[in-house]
Amino acid sequence: MNIQTFDLTGKVALITGGYGYLGKATTESLAYHGAKVFVLGRYENKFLEAFSDNDLYGKSIIFQECDVSKTDSIAGAFRAIFEKERKIDVLINNAFYVSGQDPLTMKDSDWEKGIDGTLNSVFRCIRECIPYLEKSESPRIINVSSMYGVVAPDFEVYKEFPEMLNPPHYGAAKAGVVQLSKYYASYLGEKGITVNTVTPGPFPSKTVQEKEEFIEMLATRTLLKRIGKPEDLAGAFVYLASDASGFVTGQNLIVDGGWTVG
Fold this sequence. Notes:
The N and C termini lie far apart (41 Å). By secondary structure, the chain is of the alpha/beta class. It has helices at residues 21-32, 44-51, 71-85, 108-133, 155-160, 168-188, 212-220, 230-241, and strands at residues 12-16, 36-41, 61-65, 90-93, 140-144, 194-200, 252-255. The protein has one domain (12-255): Rossmann fold, CATH 3.40.50. The protein has a 7-stranded parallel β-sheet with strand order 3-2-1-4-5-6-7, with helices on both faces. Helix 3 (71-85) packs parallel to helix 4 (108-133).
């Protein structure tokens, strides 16, 4: 009997935005479980700040310059990694960029940038990576959505904290990420490529956590009565990247402390 495990030894994983607040924990967890992880981003200094004190830095946590707003940059990054490793097994689309916030005064250019940075960039990365994933024995695509791609913001909260309001293009694009995952799960299924979504709930950054009253309001809206910690999320990616999830595709794994239940 072949036991499917969470061991990622020998797998080559790519994660966009892997040096951010949540991306860092995911990157380290993938590497801890044996994967060689390429962190794709624009700023090597941020990568160094995040990982230079990690024992796996430069060994199984490696920087690869990549700008997800540009197809040529994405294609070049994937090609460089494949030429070096001769394989790509896992693609995690975690990076995003937006501008604008107010749903009443948002400019067309802000809307377009938010959709491009949150949804179109995921499409570009999937499209450019498929030829490499087709060569893998256990290919995985994992896209990152948001609880605001599943439910609307609680505007009672944001009446007191308008500066924290989740913008409309972000939620709309994150809902699109869930559907995009389902589409490619169906399209790529016969190739053996699984495509799933991880949807985080309230995982406010360290800066946001300085607003203690806002954090308390977030926590009370989860069933577990607390906000998420980065390590709460990392395991979902390890599972979906591993052989243990080989028969799981087209799914949205929501990690939100129960926020979206009610």
